[in-house]
């Protein structure tokens, strides 16, 4: 039964960066105890060590994970998906299969899973580890209403669930899945600038990180246009507009757009 989030048994095939971030977010938020999470990976010894930290059940075989779980998250690198699905293809029928693999959409899973298997393609991001993630989901899926409700109840506790058309999933992945790397570079750069102007590094990072979190929260909670948020900080002839002008001169917006273009192969 998967009628409530707390009764779910959740499996991970692959327990690397993304799977651990999801498990960490669920366990540390209290959304799901580690004892209800099952995982397998390429190297069992390494898995045991990471699973133990979260109280997650480590399994040697993918089949054991599938048998123990209502929801099975496919969290291996995209090129390995077919290889890990093939031996458990029949066992996955009747489960809810959640993909987190980049570039693997509804049509792909229809072609490799047993007919009638319930599945959903998603792209999460690593801030899900601290309950502030994004899970971009393809609008087209084949979960039952009950499975969908349980999925949203569970992951909605640690992430914004955003539904997008299949052809936009890779763009959503570039913005929200790759975005943490860009945001981390911005954070590091602000830290370097603070240090250049004599702030202790730890202080500079804390100030910059809290500022980024607060700015994001302000936008999410008010829906205010980013341009209006920028204008609200720029008084005429003031200091902030001088910084904004320097960023524009150096092509800040263009650099960010170029980064997404590079991922999308544009
Ligand atoms: N990282 C991100 O920010 C991010 C964001 C969105 C989506 N994703 C997606 O998440 C997926 C995983 O990425 P990742 O960054 O977590 O990769 P990762 O850290 O390299 O983890 C991959 C996991 O797969 C395991 N694995 C390898 N071969 C296996 C097999 N035959 N059977 C079972 N498990 C096997 C690995 O185990 P061993 O290490 O023991 O070999 C490891 O636990 C990818 O499809 C990626 O597109 C990642």
Automatic annotation (TrEMBL):
<dbReference type="GO" id="GO:0004735">
    <property type="term" value="F:pyrroline-5-carboxylate reductase activity"/>
</dbReference>
<feature type="domain" description="Pyrroline-5-carboxylate reductase dimerisation">
    <location>
        <begin position="168"/>
        <end position="263"/>
    </location>
</feature>
<dbReference type="InterPro" id="IPR008927">
    <property type="entry name" value="6-PGluconate_DH-like_C_sf"/>
</dbReference>
<feature type="binding site">
    <location>
        <begin position="75"/>
        <end position="78"/>
    </location>
    <ligand>
        <name>NADP(+)</name>
    </ligand>
</feature>
<dbReference type="Pfam" id="PF14748">
    <property type="entry name" value="P5CR_dimer"/>
</dbReference>
<feature type="binding site">
    <location>
        <begin position="13"/>
        <end position="18"/>
    </location>
    <ligand>
        <name>NADP(+)</name>
    </ligand>
</feature>
<dbReference type="InterPro" id="IPR000304">
    <property type="entry name" value="Pyrroline-COOH_reductase"/>
</dbReference>
<dbReference type="InterPro" id="IPR029036">
    <property type="entry name" value="P5CR_dimer"/>
</dbReference>
<keyword id="KW-0521">NADP</keyword>
<dbReference type="GO" id="GO:0005737">
    <property type="term" value="C:cytoplasm"/>
</dbReference>
<dbReference type="InterPro" id="IPR028939">
    <property type="entry name" value="P5C_Rdtase_cat_N"/>
</dbReference>
<protein>
    <recommendedName>
        <fullName>Pyrroline-5-carboxylate reductase</fullName>
        <ecNumber>1.5.1.2</ecNumber>
    </recommendedName>
</protein>
<comment type="similarity">
    <text>Belongs to the pyrroline-5-carboxylate reductase family.</text>
</comment>
<keyword id="KW-0028">Amino-acid biosynthesis</keyword>
<keyword id="KW-0560">Oxidoreductase</keyword>
<keyword id="KW-0641">Proline biosynthesis</keyword>
<dbReference type="Pfam" id="PF03807">
    <property type="entry name" value="F420_oxidored"/>
</dbReference>
<feature type="domain" description="Pyrroline-5-carboxylate reductase catalytic N-terminal">
    <location>
        <begin position="10"/>
        <end position="103"/>
    </location>
</feature>
<dbReference type="GO" id="GO:0055129">
    <property type="term" value="P:L-proline biosynthetic process"/>
</dbReference>
<comment type="pathway">
    <text>Amino-acid biosynthesis; L-proline biosynthesis; L-proline from L-glutamate 5-semialdehyde: step 1/1.</text>
</comment>
<dbReference type="InterPro" id="IPR036291">
    <property type="entry name" value="NAD(P)-bd_dom_sf"/>
</dbReference>
<comment type="function">
    <text>Catalyzes the reduction of 1-pyrroline-5-carboxylate (PCA) to L-proline.</text>
</comment>
<keyword id="KW-0963">Cytoplasm</keyword>
